[in-house]
Automatic annotation (TrEMBL):
Protein's UniProt name: histidine kinase
Cross-referenced Gene3D superfamilies: 3.40.50.2300, Histidine kinase-like ATPase, C-terminal domain
Chain positions found as 4-aspartylphosphate: D755
Single Gene Ontology MF annotation: phosphorelay sensor kinase activity
Gene: ainR
Source organism per UniProt: Aliivibrio fischeri (strain ATCC 700601 / ES114)
Domain Histidine kinase: 463-681
EC number(s) per entry: 2.7.13.3
């Protein structure tokens, strides 16, 4: 049995712990993301406050103050202990009623309010009127006393324990709640209250009544710290450790403590006069040396007892980090098995527009979004709660998502999401599981990024091989037709028209091939899309023009497209990039024309803030579990040889247009892409989407001008020569930068077209030497590279640049500008 002073110190320490906890509890409430109903938490705060007063009143009876003051003070303290314990029970009942309430505002039922009011009034009366609950206190020494109860004491204690029983019933009700987190929390709530109930019944009813021994009355106040902390923990935190996990750690440390305490007990009990100093010193040294080693063994034993396995689920999750070195997909499958989630519904995906709504909340907390936690928060929030959280909840409901874990890349920006559906057994995700996954994802983030780069390189190689065959084959086809027309015996005028048409189609094929090269290079370098070439267009005229340019396999295929472009509006875009988006959507949709007898409809919808183009096909549709991934880099589905660059690039292009693209689909019915553009005011009729004619070289003074063409590839020099060859131009050629410097020194040059990358001397170094001699001589770079570093180096030395393959229009515009 503890002596007097240790009991007092224990009770004072208990009250201090609860007081500090309440302060932390109140502080934490202000950091909540949603404003909870104050009645729930305020009832707990009052409960904890009266628990502290009850503990302090019990400390009085264990302290020397009991003998210092007379019996009247002891009677007052006994009555004070009665009322504080009763009020603690009453407020515990109140917050349990609000937790279990089915009302949206968590108000009390009439019978609950009436019962609390009546019993509180009765408790106050029987404790204020003398000799009803406590008649006297016989004091022998601190902690040695006897309380003589009055006639109404049984009624008072029955009142108090009525609340304990009703509170327990409310906690049991939470097990049947629609809020899954309530079921988990009810376990902790019931454990806390049962520890308190059992200790109180034993020490303050059974022992005093049967043996008239009040020496154990300090025990329930001391153990009340368990109840106060467990209840506060479940109220404050929405991400709990699983009961099995806590049991595992408790058992592990208990086994380990037994290993070290047992020898001390044996030595102490077997020796008639043990030297405790040496025993304690030796035990401390042994504990320090072997504690970690024995704890590992104890954890294995505890894991076998609790989990029927030598490794806990958390330890297995930590080991998943090694799997990411070899394959992210295999690691995710193993993780799904450990978490007991469907393997096909645990996804590691890149950041995309379908999950934009979650990003502000994930950035704010730098933690996970858990559907069960969100349901709990919103359920107990005020009716005027955060509407943004309601939208997140609805989105997670629609996508059947239970967990979203962000992976943060460079500059602490989200680069990937780990997304999971509910577990097979519908259990909640525990705190230890989420913490372990977050640790793993942080550690393997580099592996994920590296794997993505490897996949990117492979996809780019496949994309170049696959995509470039189409325009080159088309070019070959049109040139073969030109040969065929020449061989045919037709009228001269008709033959010229046919040849002209085939040449136009061949040029268009080359243009599309060049466009694909630019896109592939842009993707490889992860460069941003510049708005320098954006112009205002009529969306209706531009869309019609692009549809007309699209090469359909047959006229019948073209007839399957329905256009409704009457609701016209202005867009600020690049026509080539917009054409790529439409071509990509058309190519994806027409892929299924033969198999599904599907059709395409394109319509325009004007809005107040945004205007939309809706592209819909009645093809096979997309599975709901596939839909979130379609805008990911390199994602392909049901198509052989695809690069997976198409839709991800479409998304980036639409974002560059300050718009967006989203997809809706129902399997077996339709797929619909909605392109949103910002609203722009202006006169649509004044816009012209047709390309202007190439400018003519202005011959102002009829004098000859000399142009130097520098490129290590002869075909490139000849192509430029063909494009700008005019009577008033003298055209010179050089194969490298060294030759260019020599020719510029020995000839009067008016304009230089300079390839940036050449052997012997590159274009940038040659331009620097020429500019020293002739600082005002215009030099235009020809580059197939579009990286920021290359362009920056070019613009510091030269007067402009053109990207290969160079068009005739671009060359003539440059010649016209400088000459």
């Amino acid at each position: 049995m503890l002596t007097t002073l240790p009991k007092v110190y224990l009770l004072l320490t208990t009250s201090a712990i609860i007081l500090l906890w309440v302060g932390y509890f109140i502080r934490s409430l202000y950091r909540e993301r949603t404003k909870v109903n104050p009645y729930i938490y305020s009832s707990y705060i009052f409960y904890a406050f009266f628990i502290i007063l009850w503990i302090l009143s019990n400390a009085y009876f264990q302290s020397p103050l009991l003998t210092y003051f007379d019996e009247s003070v002891a009677i007052f303290m006994a009555l004070f202990a009665n009322m504080t314990s009763y009020l603690a029970f009453a407020f515990a009942f109140l917050f349990s009623c609000r937790l279990a309430s089915k009302h949206s505002d968590k108000r009390l039922s009439k019978w609950q309010f009436g019962l609390t009011s009546i019993t509180t009034l009765v408790a106050l009366i029987v404790n204020v009127i003398p000799n009803l609950t406590v008649i006297g206190v016989t004091i022998q020494a601190p902690s040695v006393f006897t309380i003589e109860f009055g006639p109404f004491a049984p009624l008072f204690f029955l009142n108090a324990f009525l609340f304990v029983i009703l509170t327990s019933i409310n906690f049991f009700k939470l097990r049947k709640s629609n809020i899954k987190l309530n079921k988990e929390k009810s376990v902790y709530l019931m454990i806390g209250i049962f520890i308190y109930m059992i200790s109180t019944i034993a020490s303050q009813i059974i022992i005093p009544v049967i043996w008239a021994d009040f020496s154990y009355t300090w025990l329930p106040p001391t153990l009340s710290v368990t109840e106060a902390l467990l209840i506060g923990y479940t109220l404050l935190y929405h991400r709990l450790y699983s009961f099995k996990y806590l049991l595992f750690w408790s058992l592990s440390y208990s086994i380990n403590l037994i290993l070290y305490i047992t020898p001390i007990v044996i030595i102490y009990s077997s020796s008639s006069n043990p030297n405790l100093f040496y025993v304690y010193a030796l035990s401390i040294i042994i504990t320090g040396l072997f504690w970690d080693k024995t704890l590992k063994k104890s954890k294995k034993i505890a894991s076998i007892i609790i989990y029927k396995d030598q490794q806990t689920p958390v330890e297995k999750i930590y080991k998943i980090a090694e799997e990411f070195k070899y394959s992210s997909s295999n690691a995710i499958i193993k993780l799904a098995s450990i978490l007991n989630t469907p393997k096909e519904e645990l996804l590691l995906i890149g950041k995309n527009t379908n999950y934009n709504i979650f990003i502000p909340h994930l950035n704010e907390s730098h933690s996970a979004l858990v559907k069960d936690e969100l349901d709990y928060q919103i359920h107990y929030a005020l009716e005027t709660g955060n509407s943004a959280l309601h939208q997140v909840q609805e989105k997670m409901d629609q996508s059947k998502t239970a967990l979203i874990l962000p992976i943060f890349g460079e500059n602490k920006l989200i680069s990937h999401f780990l997304i999971s559906a509910n577990k097979h057994d519908n259990a909640t995700f525990s705190n230890e599981e989420i913490s372990a996954i977050q640790w793993v994802l942080t550690k393997v983030q580099g592996y994920i990024e590296s794997e993505q780069k490897v996949r990117q390189s492979q996809a780019l190689a496949n994309s170049i091989a696959h995509e470039m065959r189409n325009p080159l084959s088309q070019l070959q086809y049109h040139f073969e037709k030109i040969k065929h027309h020449y061989q045919k015996n037709t009228e001269h005028e008709k033959q010229e028209d046919l040849i002209k048409n085939e040449l136009n189609q061949g040029c268009l094929a080359i243009q599309k091939g060049a466009q694909l090269i630019d896109i592939i290079l842009s993707e490889a370098k992860n460069t941003t899309i510049s708005d320098a070439l954006f112009q205002h267009y009529s969306i209706s005229l531009l869309t019609q023009q692009i549809i007309d340019e699209y090469v359909f396999d047959s006229e019948e295929m073209k007839q399957k497209i329905t256009l409704n472009l009457e609701d016209d509006f202005i867009v600020n875009i690049n026509d080539t990039l917009y054409g790529f988006i439409l071509f990509n959507l058309l190519r994806n949709a027409t892929h299924y024309f033969d198999e599904y007898k599907s059709s395409i409809s394109i319509r325009l919808v004007r809005g107040f803030a945004t205007n939309k183009l809706i592209f819909r096909d009645t093809g096979p549709g997309i599975d709901s579990h596939i839909l979130p991934n379609i805008f990911d880099d390199f994602f392909t589905h049901n198509k052989k040889g695809g690069s997976g660059l198409g839709l991800s690039y479409c998304l980036r292009v639409m974002h560059a247009f300050e718009g967006n693209i989203v997809c809706y689909s129902t399997k077996g019915e339709f797929t619909e892409f909605v392109l949103s553009f910002p609203r722009i005011e202006g006169n649509i009729n004044a816009l012209n989407t047709k390309p202007s004619s190439p400018p003519l070289i202005k011959d102002k003074d009829n004098s000859l001008k000399t142009v130097l063409i520098v490129d290590d590839k002869k075909v490139q020099r000849m192509l430029i020569h063909t494009f700008i060859n005019k009577d008033n131009l003298t055209l010179l050629q050089a194969e490298n930068g060294e030759e260019a410097v020599e020719m510029a020194t020995n000839n009067k040059i008016d304009l230089i077209f300079m390839d940036s990358r050449m052997p012997i001397m590159n274009g940038i170094d040659a331009a620097k030497k020429i500019k020293i001699l002739y600082p005002h001589l215009p030099i235009i770079a020809l580059t197939g590279e579009s990286s920021h570093e290359e362009i920056s180096a070019i613009t510091q030395v030269m007067d402009g640049y053109l990207t290969k393959p160079v068009s005739k229009t671009q060359l003539l515009q440059v010649v016209d500008k400088w000459l």
